[in-house]
Amino acid sequence: MMKRLFLLLLLAVTASGAAAQTDSLPPFDALLNRAREFVKQGDYASCVKCYEEAEKVFAELPDSLRTQFSDDGELFGGFYYNKACYLSMAGRRKAAVGTFEHYADRVIGREEVDFPWICQDSDLDNIRSDKRFRRVLERLSQYGDYKSVLCSAAPYRADSVDTMPRFRYAAPNDRNLVRLRWKFDLDSIAGAGDEISKILNLMTWVHDAVRHDGGSDNPSERNAEAMIELCRREGRGVNCRMLAQILNECYLAMGFKSRFVTCMPRKLFNDCHVINAVYSATLDKWVWVDPTFNAYVMDENGTLLSIAEVRERLRDGRPLVLNEDANWNRKEAETKEHYLDYYMAKNLYYVVCSEWSMYNTETRCEGRPRMSYVALVPEGFRPDESAVQLTSDDRRFWQSPYEETN
Fold first, then answer.
1. Which residues make Cβ contacts (< 8 Å) with residue 64, sequence separation at least 6?
2. Residue 110: which of 147, 70, 169 has the closest Cα?
3. Which terminus of the chain has fewer Cβ atoms in its 10 Å neighbourhood, N or C?
4. Alpha helix locations (H) across 145-290?
5. Contact 162, 396 (CB under 8 A)
6. Cβ-Cβ contacts under 8 Å for 325 (sequence gap 6 or more)
7. Cα torsion angle, 385, 389, 393, 399, sign
Protein backbone atom coordinates (compact mmCIF):
# COMPACT_ATOMS: atom_id res chain seq x y z
CA MET A 1 0.00 0.00 0.00
CA MET A 2 1.39 3.40 -1.01
CA LYS A 3 1.26 5.42 2.15
CA ARG A 4 -0.03 8.99 2.33
CA LEU A 5 2.81 10.03 4.65
CA PHE A 6 5.33 8.39 2.34
CA LEU A 7 4.03 10.57 -0.47
CA LEU A 8 4.33 13.64 1.74
CA LEU A 9 7.93 12.71 2.46
CA LEU A 10 8.77 12.42 -1.23
CA LEU A 11 7.09 15.75 -1.92
CA ALA A 12 9.16 17.30 0.84
CA VAL A 13 12.33 15.87 -0.70
CA THR A 14 11.59 17.16 -4.19
CA ALA A 15 10.41 20.54 -2.93
CA SER A 16 13.37 21.16 -0.69
CA GLY A 17 15.10 23.61 -2.98
CA ALA A 18 18.81 23.47 -3.65
CA ALA A 19 19.44 20.34 -1.61
CA ALA A 20 17.21 18.24 -3.87
CA GLN A 21 19.24 19.33 -6.87
CA THR A 22 22.71 18.57 -5.57
CA ASP A 23 24.79 15.46 -6.29
CA SER A 24 24.73 14.48 -2.62
CA LEU A 25 21.10 13.35 -2.21
CA PRO A 26 20.67 10.85 -5.09
CA PRO A 27 21.97 7.92 -2.96
CA PHE A 28 19.33 8.78 -0.36
CA ASP A 29 16.61 9.06 -3.03
CA ALA A 30 17.74 5.79 -4.63
CA LEU A 31 17.38 3.95 -1.34
CA LEU A 32 13.84 5.27 -0.88
CA ASN A 33 12.97 4.18 -4.41
CA ARG A 34 14.37 0.71 -3.72
CA ALA A 35 12.30 0.59 -0.55
CA ARG A 36 9.18 1.30 -2.57
CA GLU A 37 9.93 -1.63 -4.85
CA PHE A 38 10.40 -3.95 -1.87
CA VAL A 39 7.05 -2.77 -0.50
CA LYS A 40 5.36 -3.73 -3.78
CA GLN A 41 6.91 -7.18 -3.45
CA GLY A 42 5.84 -7.52 0.18
CA ASP A 43 9.49 -7.78 1.28
CA TYR A 44 9.29 -5.54 4.32
CA ALA A 45 12.53 -6.77 5.87
CA SER A 46 14.50 -5.55 2.83
CA CYS A 47 12.47 -2.34 2.82
CA VAL A 48 13.51 -1.69 6.43
CA LYS A 49 17.15 -2.24 5.53
CA CYS A 50 16.83 0.45 2.84
CA TYR A 51 15.39 2.84 5.39
CA GLU A 52 18.15 2.11 7.87
CA GLU A 53 20.79 2.70 5.20
CA ALA A 54 19.05 5.89 4.01
CA GLU A 55 19.08 7.21 7.56
CA LYS A 56 22.84 6.63 7.75
CA VAL A 57 23.42 8.30 4.36
CA PHE A 58 21.42 11.34 5.44
CA ALA A 59 23.26 11.61 8.77
CA GLU A 60 26.59 11.72 6.92
CA LEU A 61 25.58 14.63 4.70
CA PRO A 62 27.21 17.99 5.46
CA ASP A 63 25.19 20.27 7.72
CA SER A 64 24.82 22.74 4.84
CA LEU A 65 22.89 20.14 2.81
CA ARG A 66 20.79 18.75 5.64
CA THR A 67 19.62 22.22 6.66
CA GLN A 68 18.51 22.82 3.06
CA PHE A 69 16.43 19.66 3.30
CA SER A 70 14.73 20.81 6.52
CA ASP A 71 15.14 23.83 8.77
CA ASP A 72 16.75 21.89 11.60
CA GLY A 73 18.68 19.48 9.38
CA GLU A 74 16.70 16.43 10.50
CA LEU A 75 14.55 14.00 8.54
CA PHE A 76 10.85 14.73 8.35
CA GLY A 77 8.45 12.83 10.55
CA GLY A 78 6.99 10.95 7.58
CA PHE A 79 10.28 9.07 7.20
CA TYR A 80 10.01 7.65 10.71
CA TYR A 81 6.31 6.98 10.40
CA ASN A 82 6.85 4.83 7.32
CA LYS A 83 9.84 3.11 8.88
CA ALA A 84 7.69 2.22 11.91
CA CYS A 85 5.01 0.80 9.61
CA TYR A 86 7.46 -1.38 7.71
CA LEU A 87 9.11 -2.57 10.92
CA SER A 88 5.66 -3.51 12.16
CA MET A 89 4.88 -5.49 9.02
CA ALA A 90 8.30 -7.13 9.15
CA GLY A 91 7.43 -8.45 12.61
CA ARG A 92 9.95 -6.32 14.48
CA ARG A 93 7.40 -5.04 17.00
CA LYS A 94 9.75 -3.57 19.62
CA ALA A 95 11.75 -1.64 17.02
CA ALA A 96 8.50 -0.49 15.39
CA VAL A 97 7.18 0.96 18.64
CA GLY A 98 10.48 2.70 19.34
CA THR A 99 10.51 4.22 15.86
CA PHE A 100 6.89 5.31 16.26
CA GLU A 101 7.85 7.04 19.51
CA HIS A 102 10.63 8.82 17.61
CA TYR A 103 8.11 9.84 14.96
CA ALA A 104 5.87 11.42 17.61
CA ASP A 105 8.80 13.24 19.22
CA ARG A 106 9.73 14.57 15.80
CA VAL A 107 6.31 15.87 14.72
CA ILE A 108 4.64 17.17 17.87
CA GLY A 109 4.89 20.95 17.78
CA ARG A 110 6.72 20.87 14.42
CA GLU A 111 4.67 19.11 11.76
CA GLU A 112 1.08 18.24 10.96
CA VAL A 113 -0.34 14.87 11.95
CA ASP A 114 -2.98 12.94 10.00
CA PHE A 115 -4.42 11.38 13.15
CA PRO A 116 -7.49 9.73 11.51
CA TRP A 117 -5.15 8.00 9.05
CA ILE A 118 -2.90 6.73 11.84
CA CYS A 119 -5.93 5.32 13.66
CA GLN A 120 -7.01 3.27 10.64
CA ASP A 121 -3.65 2.40 9.07
CA SER A 122 -3.54 -1.42 8.98
CA ASP A 123 0.26 -1.31 8.66
CA LEU A 124 0.39 -0.54 12.39
CA ASP A 125 -2.01 -3.28 13.47
CA ASN A 126 0.83 -5.49 14.73
CA ILE A 127 1.70 -2.97 17.44
CA ARG A 128 -1.71 -1.49 18.34
CA SER A 129 -2.01 -3.63 21.46
CA ASP A 130 1.36 -2.44 22.78
CA LYS A 131 1.03 -0.18 25.85
CA ARG A 132 3.82 2.12 24.70
CA PHE A 133 2.14 2.52 21.32
CA ARG A 134 -1.19 3.41 22.94
CA ARG A 135 0.52 6.05 25.11
CA VAL A 136 2.08 7.61 22.02
CA LEU A 137 -1.27 7.53 20.25
CA GLU A 138 -2.82 9.43 23.15
CA ARG A 139 -0.10 12.08 22.89
CA LEU A 140 -0.73 12.43 19.16
CA SER A 141 -4.50 12.71 19.65
CA GLN A 142 -4.07 15.79 21.84
CA TYR A 143 -2.05 17.41 19.09
CA GLY A 144 -3.27 15.99 15.78
CA ASP A 145 -6.96 15.22 16.31
CA TYR A 146 -8.03 18.30 14.40
CA LYS A 147 -11.75 17.76 14.85
CA SER A 148 -11.22 17.81 18.62
CA VAL A 149 -9.08 20.94 18.30
CA LEU A 150 -11.85 22.58 16.26
CA CYS A 151 -14.50 21.49 18.76
CA SER A 152 -12.52 23.03 21.61
CA ALA A 153 -12.38 26.44 19.93
CA ALA A 154 -14.23 29.23 21.70
CA PRO A 155 -17.50 30.37 20.11
CA TYR A 156 -17.92 33.48 18.03
CA ARG A 157 -19.38 36.62 19.60
CA ALA A 158 -21.12 39.63 18.10
CA ASP A 159 -18.90 42.65 18.74
CA SER A 160 -20.45 45.37 20.84
CA VAL A 161 -18.50 47.97 18.89
CA ASP A 162 -18.55 47.31 15.17
CA THR A 163 -15.24 48.30 13.56
CA MET A 164 -15.20 45.66 10.84
CA PRO A 165 -15.24 47.12 7.31
CA ARG A 166 -18.00 46.07 4.96
CA PHE A 167 -16.84 43.67 2.26
CA ARG A 168 -17.03 45.09 -1.25
CA TYR A 169 -17.36 43.36 -4.61
CA ALA A 170 -16.46 44.46 -8.13
CA ALA A 171 -19.42 44.92 -10.45
CA PRO A 172 -19.70 42.65 -13.51
CA ASN A 173 -19.49 45.70 -15.81
CA ASP A 174 -15.90 46.30 -14.73
CA ARG A 175 -14.07 46.40 -18.07
CA ASN A 176 -11.55 43.75 -17.05
CA LEU A 177 -14.28 41.39 -15.91
CA VAL A 178 -16.24 42.02 -19.11
CA ARG A 179 -13.17 41.06 -21.14
CA LEU A 180 -12.66 37.95 -19.01
CA ARG A 181 -16.28 36.89 -19.53
CA TRP A 182 -16.01 37.35 -23.29
CA LYS A 183 -12.54 35.86 -23.76
CA PHE A 184 -13.31 32.54 -22.10
CA ASP A 185 -16.99 32.46 -23.08
CA LEU A 186 -18.02 32.07 -19.47
CA ASP A 187 -21.71 32.19 -20.38
CA SER A 188 -21.37 28.94 -22.33
CA ILE A 189 -19.31 27.39 -19.54
CA ALA A 190 -21.89 28.33 -16.90
CA GLY A 191 -24.65 26.90 -19.10
CA ALA A 192 -28.35 27.64 -19.32
CA GLY A 193 -29.40 25.81 -16.14
CA ASP A 194 -30.35 27.18 -12.76
CA GLU A 195 -28.13 29.30 -10.53
CA ILE A 196 -26.60 26.38 -8.61
CA SER A 197 -25.66 24.52 -11.79
CA LYS A 198 -23.94 27.65 -13.12
CA ILE A 199 -21.96 28.02 -9.89
CA LEU A 200 -20.81 24.39 -10.02
CA ASN A 201 -20.11 24.41 -13.77
CA LEU A 202 -17.77 27.37 -13.39
CA MET A 203 -15.96 25.66 -10.51
CA THR A 204 -15.45 22.46 -12.51
CA TRP A 205 -14.20 24.42 -15.52
CA VAL A 206 -11.49 26.15 -13.46
CA HIS A 207 -10.59 22.83 -11.82
CA ASP A 208 -10.06 21.24 -15.24
CA ALA A 209 -8.55 24.28 -16.99
CA VAL A 210 -5.66 24.79 -14.54
CA ARG A 211 -4.06 21.97 -12.58
CA HIS A 212 -3.19 22.33 -8.94
CA ASP A 213 0.50 22.49 -8.02
CA GLY A 214 1.02 23.37 -4.37
CA GLY A 215 4.76 23.86 -4.84
CA SER A 216 4.56 26.33 -7.73
CA ASP A 217 5.77 29.90 -7.49
CA ASN A 218 3.06 32.54 -7.46
CA PRO A 219 2.95 34.57 -10.69
CA SER A 220 3.49 38.31 -10.45
CA GLU A 221 0.27 39.08 -12.36
CA ARG A 222 -2.52 37.44 -10.39
CA ASN A 223 -5.65 37.71 -12.45
CA ALA A 224 -7.61 34.92 -14.10
CA GLU A 225 -6.73 35.83 -17.67
CA ALA A 226 -2.98 36.13 -17.07
CA MET A 227 -2.75 33.00 -14.89
CA ILE A 228 -4.74 30.77 -17.26
CA GLU A 229 -2.61 31.88 -20.20
CA LEU A 230 0.61 31.41 -18.19
CA CYS A 231 -0.34 27.88 -17.21
CA ARG A 232 -1.24 26.98 -20.79
CA ARG A 233 1.93 28.50 -22.17
CA GLU A 234 4.31 26.93 -19.66
CA GLY A 235 2.40 23.72 -19.00
CA ARG A 236 2.40 24.47 -15.29
CA GLY A 237 -0.08 24.65 -12.45
CA VAL A 238 -0.73 27.05 -9.59
CA ASN A 239 -1.45 26.66 -5.90
CA CYS A 240 -4.86 26.69 -4.23
CA ARG A 241 -4.74 30.43 -3.56
CA MET A 242 -4.28 31.25 -7.23
CA LEU A 243 -6.96 28.76 -8.32
CA ALA A 244 -9.42 30.37 -5.91
CA GLN A 245 -8.57 33.82 -7.28
CA ILE A 246 -9.15 32.63 -10.84
CA LEU A 247 -12.56 31.24 -9.90
CA ASN A 248 -13.36 34.34 -7.84
CA GLU A 249 -12.93 36.58 -10.87
CA CYS A 250 -15.02 34.24 -13.04
CA TYR A 251 -17.86 34.48 -10.53
CA LEU A 252 -17.58 38.26 -10.33
CA ALA A 253 -17.58 38.48 -14.13
CA MET A 254 -20.82 36.48 -14.20
CA GLY A 255 -22.49 38.77 -11.67
CA PHE A 256 -22.07 36.57 -8.58
CA LYS A 257 -20.85 38.05 -5.31
CA SER A 258 -17.81 36.00 -4.41
CA ARG A 259 -14.76 35.89 -2.16
CA PHE A 260 -11.67 33.73 -1.97
CA VAL A 261 -11.34 32.54 1.61
CA THR A 262 -8.10 31.53 3.32
CA CYS A 263 -8.90 28.69 5.72
CA MET A 264 -6.35 28.53 8.51
CA PRO A 265 -5.29 25.99 11.15
CA ARG A 266 -4.89 27.01 14.77
CA LYS A 267 -1.13 26.88 14.28
CA LEU A 268 0.41 26.91 10.82
CA PHE A 269 3.07 24.30 10.09
CA ASN A 270 2.98 23.09 6.49
CA ASP A 271 -0.03 24.59 4.78
CA CYS A 272 -3.43 26.18 4.88
CA HIS A 273 -6.08 26.00 2.16
CA VAL A 274 -7.91 28.58 0.05
CA ILE A 275 -11.40 28.03 -1.33
CA ASN A 276 -14.30 30.19 -2.50
CA ALA A 277 -17.52 31.43 -0.98
CA VAL A 278 -20.05 32.46 -3.63
CA TYR A 279 -23.42 33.94 -2.72
CA SER A 280 -26.45 32.02 -3.91
CA ALA A 281 -29.56 34.16 -4.22
CA THR A 282 -31.59 30.97 -4.59
CA LEU A 283 -30.43 29.63 -1.22
CA ASP A 284 -29.93 33.11 0.26
CA LYS A 285 -26.53 32.21 1.67
CA TRP A 286 -22.85 31.80 0.90
CA VAL A 287 -21.97 28.45 -0.70
CA TRP A 288 -18.73 26.45 -0.28
CA VAL A 289 -16.88 25.76 -3.56
CA ASP A 290 -13.32 24.48 -3.86
CA PRO A 291 -11.68 24.52 -7.32
CA THR A 292 -8.59 22.64 -6.11
CA PHE A 293 -10.63 19.52 -5.37
CA ASN A 294 -13.71 20.27 -7.49
CA ALA A 295 -15.51 20.02 -4.16
CA TYR A 296 -18.71 21.23 -2.61
CA VAL A 297 -20.41 20.11 0.59
CA MET A 298 -24.03 19.20 1.26
CA ASP A 299 -26.26 18.33 4.18
CA GLU A 300 -28.11 15.03 4.46
CA ASN A 301 -30.84 16.38 2.15
CA GLY A 302 -28.47 17.39 -0.64
CA THR A 303 -28.58 21.14 0.06
CA LEU A 304 -25.32 22.98 -0.51
CA LEU A 305 -23.68 24.29 2.63
CA SER A 306 -21.67 27.39 3.44
CA ILE A 307 -18.24 27.52 5.05
CA ALA A 308 -19.86 28.56 8.33
CA GLU A 309 -22.32 25.66 8.20
CA VAL A 310 -19.62 23.09 7.43
CA ARG A 311 -17.53 24.34 10.32
CA GLU A 312 -20.42 24.10 12.77
CA ARG A 313 -21.40 20.64 11.56
CA LEU A 314 -17.83 19.46 12.06
CA ARG A 315 -18.01 20.84 15.59
CA ASP A 316 -21.36 19.31 16.57
CA GLY A 317 -21.19 16.08 14.57
CA ARG A 318 -24.09 16.64 12.19
CA PRO A 319 -23.92 14.89 8.79
CA LEU A 320 -21.78 16.23 5.97
CA VAL A 321 -21.80 14.91 2.40
CA LEU A 322 -18.99 15.53 -0.10
CA ASN A 323 -19.82 15.39 -3.80
CA GLU A 324 -18.88 12.04 -5.34
CA ASP A 325 -16.70 13.54 -8.10
CA ALA A 326 -14.45 15.54 -5.76
CA ASN A 327 -10.87 14.87 -6.86
CA TRP A 328 -7.33 16.17 -7.17
CA ASN A 329 -6.24 16.96 -10.74
CA ARG A 330 -8.50 14.18 -12.07
CA LYS A 331 -5.91 11.74 -10.69
CA GLU A 332 -7.01 10.97 -7.15
CA ALA A 333 -10.53 10.77 -5.76
CA GLU A 334 -11.10 12.79 -2.60
CA THR A 335 -13.03 11.29 0.31
CA LYS A 336 -15.20 12.92 2.93
CA GLU A 337 -13.06 11.32 5.67
CA HIS A 338 -9.83 12.86 4.45
CA TYR A 339 -11.09 16.11 2.97
CA LEU A 340 -13.51 17.17 5.70
CA ASP A 341 -12.75 15.16 8.85
CA TYR A 342 -9.01 15.71 8.58
CA TYR A 343 -7.87 18.35 6.07
CA MET A 344 -10.59 20.96 6.43
CA ALA A 345 -11.17 20.26 10.13
CA LYS A 346 -7.54 21.33 10.48
CA ASN A 347 -7.99 24.37 8.25
CA LEU A 348 -11.24 25.83 9.59
CA TYR A 349 -10.02 27.10 12.93
CA TYR A 350 -10.27 30.62 11.53
CA VAL A 351 -10.76 32.20 8.11
CA VAL A 352 -9.45 35.30 6.36
CA CYS A 353 -10.90 37.37 3.48
CA SER A 354 -9.71 40.46 1.65
CA GLU A 355 -11.84 43.55 2.21
CA TRP A 356 -12.19 44.03 -1.56
CA SER A 357 -13.12 41.23 -3.96
CA MET A 358 -12.09 42.46 -7.38
CA TYR A 359 -10.02 41.92 -10.51
CA ASN A 360 -6.30 41.68 -9.72
CA THR A 361 -7.01 41.59 -5.99
CA GLU A 362 -3.46 40.57 -5.06
CA THR A 363 -1.46 41.89 -8.00
CA ARG A 364 1.03 44.50 -6.83
CA CYS A 365 0.22 47.66 -8.76
CA GLU A 366 2.17 50.90 -8.48
CA GLY A 367 0.23 53.55 -6.66
CA ARG A 368 -2.42 51.18 -5.31
CA PRO A 369 -2.44 50.67 -1.52
CA ARG A 370 -1.90 47.18 -0.17
CA MET A 371 -5.04 45.11 0.21
CA SER A 372 -6.46 44.91 3.73
CA TYR A 373 -7.74 41.65 5.22
CA VAL A 374 -10.24 40.64 7.88
CA ALA A 375 -9.96 37.44 9.94
CA LEU A 376 -12.93 35.76 11.62
CA VAL A 377 -11.49 34.17 14.77
CA PRO A 378 -12.90 32.36 17.83
CA GLU A 379 -13.39 34.73 20.72
CA GLY A 380 -10.10 35.38 22.55
CA PHE A 381 -7.90 33.79 19.85
CA ARG A 382 -5.02 35.77 18.43
CA PRO A 383 -3.32 34.33 15.33
CA ASP A 384 0.36 34.80 14.59
CA GLU A 385 -0.29 37.06 11.60
CA SER A 386 -0.51 40.72 12.57
CA ALA A 387 -1.43 42.38 9.26
CA VAL A 388 -5.13 41.49 9.53
CA GLN A 389 -8.07 43.02 11.32
CA LEU A 390 -9.69 40.57 13.73
CA THR A 391 -13.36 40.02 14.44
CA SER A 392 -15.36 37.38 16.27
CA ASP A 393 -18.65 38.60 14.83
CA ASP A 394 -19.58 35.78 12.46
CA ARG A 395 -22.94 37.35 11.59
CA ARG A 396 -21.27 40.47 10.25
CA PHE A 397 -18.46 38.54 8.56
CA TRP A 398 -20.91 36.33 6.63
CA GLN A 399 -23.54 39.00 6.14
CA SER A 400 -25.44 38.88 2.84
CA PRO A 401 -23.83 41.23 0.30
CA TYR A 402 -27.35 42.53 -0.38
CA GLU A 403 -28.12 43.33 3.25
CA GLU A 404 -27.73 46.86 4.53
CA THR A 405 -25.29 47.39 7.39
CA ASN A 406 -27.07 47.78 10.72
1. none
2. 70
3. C
4. 146-151, 175-183, 186-190, 195-209, 224-234, 240-253
5. yes
6. 294
7. negative
Residues 6+ apart with CB under 8 A from 274: 239, 240, 241, 243, 244, 260, 261, 262, 263, 292
Please report which residue ranges of 191-259 form alpha helices under DSSP H. Answer: 195-209, 224-234, 240-253
SS3 405: coil
* CATH class of residue range 4-144: mainly alpha
Domain boundaries, the chain: 4-144, 168-397
Choose among 292, 331, 275: nearest CA to 209: 292
CA-nearest of 50, 5, 49, 57 to 28 is 57
Q: For the whole prediction, is pTM greater than 0.90?
A: no
10-residue block means of pLDDT along the chain (406 residues)? 39 35 65 93 96 92 81 88 96 96 90 86 95 93 86 84 81 97 98 98 98 91 95 96 98 98 88 96 97 98 98 97 97 94 95 95 78 92 84 94 74
Q: Is 3.10.620 the CATH classification of the domain at 168-397?
A: yes
